[in-house]
Amino acid sequence: MIELARDEEFAVLTIRRPAALNALSFDLLGKIGPCIRQAGQSGARALIVTGEGDKAFCAGADIKELQNRELRAQREGAEFGQAVFALLDRLPIPSVALVNGFAFGGGCELALACTLRLALPNARFGLPEVKLGLIPGYGGTQRLPRLVGLGRALELVLTGRTVDAPEALAIGLVNRVVQPPGLAAAKAYARQFSGHGLRALQFAREAVLRAADMPLHDGLRMEADLSTLAYRTRDAQEGLQAFVDKRPPKPADC
Questions:
Q1: CATH number of the domain enclosing 183
Q2: Phi, psi dihedrals of residue 49, rounded to the nearest 5°
Q3: Which of 105, 61, 110 is nearest to 84 (CA)?
Q4: 254, pLDDT greater than 50
């Protein structure tokens, strides 16, 4: 099952299928989308995504479901997974993947789709599809190069090898390695930005992520547009006045 819970100012999405290493059946994948949308409408300051237990964040797709399907169903399956994970790009709040144990295949792609990634010391990442004669289909070939660079991404996709937490940190696959208890560490990490105005955070994410597909001059133009929009928010007005008054700002989130 997929559980969405509120923990203080955060929404926490947990994949609860530990007996199968939190593998993503199509049924579970279909339940993630509504939970992401609900988190964005919940008033939470950030979304934390994790898996139940110590062994796996998410061990990937349910392999048995991938066998003996028609070509159309195979294409629709890839597009479905991509569409669900793309909801994280449009989420009005930042998302943080808290990776405990295995994050393989679709599980790794889920972590890649989050805004930021934290790894517990036992985390292991991999896109092993090539070992099955396949390639990643939920966005892994597109998001991984944007994080770790083309050369490293090609190596990981072509070899299908596993990356441990220290290496994931060294190559930029994760933002930080944290110690247990993981949820407490994730909340402490998210509080570094969750107190800022949500509209400003949204504009900043959009500027950085959209610029990855643009020439520099187009990215600068977009940044100017979003910067101008940010000035029009109540959060900006409050933030500037708070600076002048030498006091902490009170985010208005509108």
A1: 3.90.226.10
A2: -115, 130
A3: 110
A4: no
Q: What 3 state SS string does 132-153 have? A: HCCCCCCCHHHHHHHHHCHHHH
pLDDT tens, residue by residue, 50-64: 999 989 999 988 777
- 62 near 39, Cβ under 8 Å? no
pLDDT at 174: 98
User: Hey, how many other C-beta atoms are within 10 angstroms of the C-beta on 13?
Assistant: 22
Going by DSSP bridges, is the β-strand pair 176-177/124-126 parallel, antiparallel, or unpaired?
Answer: unpaired
Band (pLDDT 50/70/90 cuts) for residue 252 is low
**Could you tell me if 159 and 215 lie in one domain?**
no
Distance from C-alpha of 48 to C-alpha of 86, rounded to nearest angstrom:
16
In which region does residue 40 sit, left (phi positive, over 0), alpha (psi from -120 to 50) or beta (all else)? alpha
Candidate list 129, 155, 206, 223, residue with the active-site label: 129
Of 169 and 241, more confident = 169
Choose, from 65, 70, 79, 109, the residue flagged as catalytic: 109
Catalytic, 8? Answer no
| Residue 129 appears among annotated catalytic residues | yes
- For residue 47, the SS3 value is strand
> Is residue 145 over pLDDT 80?
yes
Domain with 77, as residue range(s), is 2-190
Tell whether 140 and 231 lie within a shared domain: no
Note whether 101 and 54 are within 8 A (CB).
yes
Q: 129, 125, 122, 123: which is closest to 159 by C-alpha?
A: 129
Give CA–CA dist 90/73, Å, rounded: 26
Integer CA distances (angstroms), 60 to 47, 65, 117, 185, 191, in order: 20, 12, 17, 24, 29
- 250 occurs within a structural domain: no
